Amino acid sequence: VQLQASGGGLVQPGGSLRLACAASGVSLDERAIGWFRQAPGKEREVVSCISVKDTVTYYSDSVKGRFTTSRDNSKNAVYLQMNSLKPEDTAVYSCAAGPICGLAPMYEYWGQGTLVTVSS
């Protein structure tokens, strides 16, 4: 099983990026998918999670209204659309798959992260 987050890069404040979480060896539509980020010198935090069958979508207060998580089951992928980016969104973003949305230890599979830098 492999997960890979991609789509990071350098963007100006107020800009947008779309991250993708792609997988092999596991069907993402059968898993809850969490997005996490870790900024330099800070602990990892959960940003968003989408449950199996999309019945629940969670966003942290810091990104609510700016980030959107969605699935494309035909591509076995999950996306994190990030709008109105702020410098404090700068971090390495990772995706993880598990049975339900929750804290980090609840996820079975983790992908390598992708760096998002928000700076002018």
Residue-averaged pLDDT: 95
- Uncertain runs are none
Radius of gyration: 13 Å
> What is the structural class?
mainly beta
The counted number of beta strands is 11
Helical fraction equals: under 10%
What's the helix-strand series?
A: EEEEEEEEEEE
Strand content: over 45%
Biggest sheet record: 7 strands, mixed
Task: Walk me through what this model shows.
The chain has strands at 2-6, 9-11, 17-24, 32-38, 45-50, 57-59, 67-72, 77-82, 91-98, 109-110, 114-118. The chain is mostly beta strands. The mean pLDDT is 95.
Short key terms for the protein model shown above:
globular; 120 residues; single chain; 49% strand; seven-stranded mixed beta sheet; 11 strands; mainly beta
Helix and strand layout, with pairings?
Layout: E1 2-6, E2 9-11, E3 17-24, E4 32-38, E5 45-50, E6 57-59, E7 67-72, E8 77-82, E9 91-98, E10 109-110, E11 114-118
Parallel strand pairs: 2-11
Antiparallel strand pairs: 1-3, 3-8, 4-5, 4-9, 5-6, 7-8, 9-10, 9-11
Concise overview:
The N and C termini lie far apart (37 Å). Strand 4 (32-38) and strand 5 form a beta hairpin.
